Amino acid sequence: MKNKQYVIGLDIGTTSAKVVLFNYLGNAISEHEIEYPLSHPSPGWVEQNPDEIERAAVKAIHTVVQQSQIETEEIAAVGISAAMHSLICLDKNNNPLSPSITWADCRSVEQTEQLQQGKGIEIYLKTGTPIHPMSPLSKLIWMKENHYEPYLKAKKFVSIKEYLLLKWFGICGADYGIASASGLLNMHTLDWDEEALELAGISREQLFQPVPPTETYQELRGEIAQQMGIRNDLPFVIGSSDGPLANLGIGAISDGDIAITIGTSGAIRQMVSTPQTDHHQETFCYAFTNDMYVIGGPTNNGGIVLRWLKETLGELEMVKALEDNQDPYELLTALAKKVKPGSEGLLFLPFLNGERAPHWNANAKGSYIGLTQSHKKEHLLRAGLEGVIFNIYQIGETLERLSGTSNRLLASGGFARSPLWLQILADIFGKEVYVPESHQSSAWGAAWTALYAVGEVDSFEEIKNFIPMRNSFIPNEKNHEIYKRLYTAYKELYPSLKSHFETLSKLQKN
C-alpha cells in the first residue's frame, strides 16, 4: 500500500455529514459538508431521518473525491466518526422502524429521574454514561414503559453509524466509543451489561458485538461504491465517537492534554489509561480502545448559543451580511469585541437546551443575570460567548479533581474559527490555547485510526507529529483576574436558581 497518499475522514455530526480528504501529513486537501434537518414532532422530541443522513454521507464522499481529482487507488481507507447517543429501531431486514432519535431528545426525563433515584449511580459507575435523557438507556426505558410500537417490533437497536454500515456492507459491529455512550456497555469488561439490558428490556442479541476502533470492512456494495465514486474494495474502518476522535485528531492524548471542542454543542475531554468515575456523576467516561478511555463532560449549549443570539438579536447583521456577502457571525463577534471582558458585570447561564455536564438537568434554563440600563446588544452578545466558556471551565474543574492539573489546552470545532472566542477561552482558563490548522479534528482522528488499522502508521501516539498547527492564544493576566471574580458568582447561580428552573419547566410544559 506504499503508493497510497491519502485517507478520508467521515464525520457524521448532529446536523451535517462532513467529509475530509487528508494527505498523510494531516493537511486537508478537499472537504465537503452536507446539512440535514432535525424534526420535533412533539415537545422535547428530537429526531432525524436516517436515510437522509445516509444519502448526505454518500453524496459528501462523492463530492470530496470528485473535487480532489485524485485516483481512488491513492486512498488508503475511510475512517468514521459519529455523534453519540443516537438510537434507531430496526426490523428483521435492517429497515428502520423508527427515526434516528438524537442525543438532544428529552422525552425520557421522567424515566431518567426515576432511574437516578434507583440504580442510577450503580449503573453509571459501571457504564461511565451519566444518567440523562441523552442516553439510549433512558430512551429504551421510555420506549418500554410507553409501549412504543417500533420498540415492540424491533429485532435490532443501532446507532446511526451502525445503520450506515449495515446499508453499505450488510454487516457491522458497535465500536467501543459509540457502545460506551449508549449506557449499556460495561466499560470495565467492554461487553454489554446485563443489569442495564434488563432495565432497557432488551437482550444482547438485539445489539451488535462491541468491537475496537480498528475494525475494518471491505466489499462495499456495488451501487453504493458507484454513488460514492470510489472502488468497492476501499477499506472502511469503524473508528469511534466524535469525542475521543477529536482528542486524537488534535493530539490531546497524553497526561495533562485537554481538548475543548465546540460545535453545535461542546465538550471538554482528556484521555486516560483506566476508567475514571466517581459518585458525583459530573463527567462521562467512554472507552476508545481496551487501554484508552476518554473522560470529560459535554455541554448542550455551544455554538447553538451564538446561533440563538444571531436569530434573536442579529437581524441587522443578517441583512448587512446578505447585502455585502459577509458572515453574520463575524459581524456579531466584531460587535461583541467592543465590550470589555466581563461584559460590565453581566453574566449568562447558557442553558438554552437544558444542560448535561456538570449539572445533568434537562430542566435548566438560560438566564441573563445582572442586566442594567447601561447594557446594550453588544453586552448581551459577549456575555453569551463568555457564559459558554464559563460552563466549560466548570466541567474542567471536575476533570482536574479526577485526573490532575491540565498543562496544555487544544481547541477544535467551529468556535476555533473565532479569534474572540478563543481569546475568551485563554483568558478564562488562564492558559495558552493551541489551535490546529484544520478545525475538523474528529475527521482527522477518524482518518488516523483508519491509517493505523490498515498498517500505514505504527501507533495512535504518532499522530502528534502530523497535526499542522495554527497560531496560539496567550492569556491576558488582567482579563483572567476579572474572569476569576466573575466565575465565583457564576458557579453559585445554578444552585440558587435550580428550584425555579423546575417550576418554570412545569409551566412551560403546560
Structure in words:
There is one protein chain. The chain is an alpha+beta fold and 510 residues long. The protein has 2 domains: 6-250, ATPase, nucleotide binding domain (Nucleotidyltransferase, domain 5); 299-436 and 471-509, Nucleotidyltransferase, domain 5 (2-Layer Sandwich), CATH 3.30.420. It is 40% helix and 20% strand. The chain has 17 helices and 23 strands. It has helices at residues 50-68, 109-117, 120-127, 136-145, 149-153, 160-169, 176-180, 194-200, 222-228, 242-250, 303-313, 315-324, 328-337, 377-403, 419-429, 441-453, 477-509; strands at 6-12, 16-23, 28-35, 47-48, 75-82, 88-90, 100-101, 156-158, 174-175, 185-186, 191-192, 210-211, 216-217, 236-241, 257-262, 266-272, 284-289, 292-299, 347-349, 367-369, 408-412, 433-436, 469-473. A 7-stranded mixed β-sheet has the order 17-18-16-15-21-22-23. A 6-stranded mixed β-sheet has the order 3-2-1-5-14-13, sandwiched between helices. A two-stranded antiparallel sheet has the order 4-7. β21 (408-412), α15 and β22 form a beta-alpha-beta unit. α10 (242-250) crosses α16 (441-453), α11 crosses α12 (315-324) and α14 packs across α15. The model has no long low-confidence stretch (mean pLDDT 95). One of its GO terms (biological process) is carbohydrate metabolic process. Belongs to the FGGY kinase family. Residues 259-453 form the Carbohydrate kinase FGGY C-terminal domain.
Helical amount: 40-55%
The helix tally amounts to 17
Tally of individual domains? 2
The name of the CATH superfamily of the largest domain reads ATPase, nucleotide binding domain
Termini gap: 62 Å
Most strands sheet:
7 strands, mixed
Report the structural category. alpha+beta
CATH domain class of the largest domain: Alpha Beta
Shape call: globular
CATH topology of the largest domain: Nucleotidyltransferase, domain 5
Strands, count: 23
Q: Write down the overall mean pLDDT.
A: 95
- Radius of gyration of CA atoms, rounded to a whole number: 22 Å
Largest beta sheet: strand ordering: 17-18-16-15-21-22-23
As residue ranges, the low-confidence spans are none
Keywords: Kinase, Transferase
Domain Carbohydrate kinase FGGY N-terminal: 6-249
Protein name: Gluconate kinase
Domain Carbohydrate kinase FGGY C-terminal: 259-453
